[in-house]
């Protein structure tokens, strides 16, 4: 009976040691995952563009979407209509976006006489983090922590401006945009030196004033 208890205890310890996330290498198993969501908005089309009042509806919808860098907007159903494309492009420009060449598929058929404006948004996250499944477990194989990589990869997923770049990367442009390259240099040149009216100067002035006041009171 004692032998059976010892065997059962040994099995329980072995099973407990194998539970949790196993990081068997120096590359974390917790990697950013990029997901795409498509939002559709149907508007009526007119003879030379959007129907009266539809452009205002589209502008209101785009405003509620809180579009940001990395989002894409496109047309499904009447991309070859120059008038409709111009109206949608004008509203997209108001929020700082250009029309995409293609849009992801959306459920539901497009009614005759309408066009579908599709906003595509990508988000990046690291599922399963934080992971404390092996924090207090025996580590007989010298694995890295179960939470290894969660911090840096979660920060990367949160900081990247365009989540799609984590999947497709960013190709080098054929030309160099000098305006982009000089932004950091221009910001540095326009910055006011910290010693010009900064905390050091103020602190010295206040100390001198307080000393002078003390002398006059005596």
Element layout with pairings:
Elements: H1 2-18, E1 33-46, E2 49-50, H2 54-65, E3 72-76, H3 82-94, E4 114-125, H4 150-159, H5 165-168, H6 178-181, H7 183-190, H8 199-217
Antiparallel strand pairs: 1-2, 1-4, 3-4
Plain-language structure description:
The protein has 218 residues and is an alpha+beta fold. The protein has a domain at 35-124. It is 40% helix and 15% strand. It contains eight helices and four strands, in the order αββαβαβααααα. It has helices at 2-18, 54-65, 82-94, 150-159, 165-168, 178-181, 183-190, 199-217; strands at residues 33-46, 49-50, 72-76, 114-125. The protein has a four-stranded antiparallel beta sheet. It is flat and about 85 Å long. The chain starts with a helix and ends with a helix.
Q: Mind telling me the C-alpha Rg?
A: 30 Å
**Which percent range fits the helix content?**
25-40%
Q: Report how far the terminal alpha carbons are from each other.
A: 93 Å
The run of helices and strands is: HEEHEHEHHHHH
Specify the structural class. alpha+beta
Strand content: 15-25%
Number of strands: 4
Q: Which spans of ≥5 residues are poorly predicted at pLDDT below 50?
A: 198-218
Mean pLDDT figure: 79
For the biggest β-sheet, the strand order reads: 2-1-4-3
| Helical segment count | 8
- The geometry reads as flat
Question: What is the quaternary state of this protein?
Answer: single chain
Largest sheet: 4 strands, antiparallel
């Amino acid at each position: 009976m004692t032998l059976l208890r010892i065997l059962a205890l040994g099995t329980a310890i072995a099973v407990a040691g194998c539970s949790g996330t196993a990081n068997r290498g120096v590359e974390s198993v917790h990697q950013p995952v990029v997901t795409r969501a498509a939002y559709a908005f149907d508007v009526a089309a007119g003879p030379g563009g959007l129907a009266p009042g539809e452009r205002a509806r589209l502008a209101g919808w785009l405003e509620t979407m809180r579009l940001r860098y990395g989002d894409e907007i496109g047309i499904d159903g009447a991309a070859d209509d120059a008038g409709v494309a111009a109206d949608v492009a004008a509203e997209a420009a108001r929020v700082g976006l250009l029309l995409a060449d293609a849009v992801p598929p959306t459920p539901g058929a497009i009614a005759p006489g309408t066009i579908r404006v599709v906003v595509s948004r990508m988000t990046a996250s690291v599922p399963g983090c934080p992971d404390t499944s092996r924090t207090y477990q025996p580590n007989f194989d010298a694995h890295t922590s179960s939470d290894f990589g969660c911090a840096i990869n979660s920060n990367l997923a949160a900081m990247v401006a365009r989540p799609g770049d984590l999947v497709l990367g960013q190709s080098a442009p054929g030309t160099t945009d000098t305006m982009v390259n000089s932004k950091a240099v221009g910001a540095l040149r326009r910055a006011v030196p910290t010693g010009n009216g900064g905390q050091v100067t103020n602190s010295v002035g206040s100390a001198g004033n307080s000393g002078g006041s003390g002398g006059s009171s005596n």
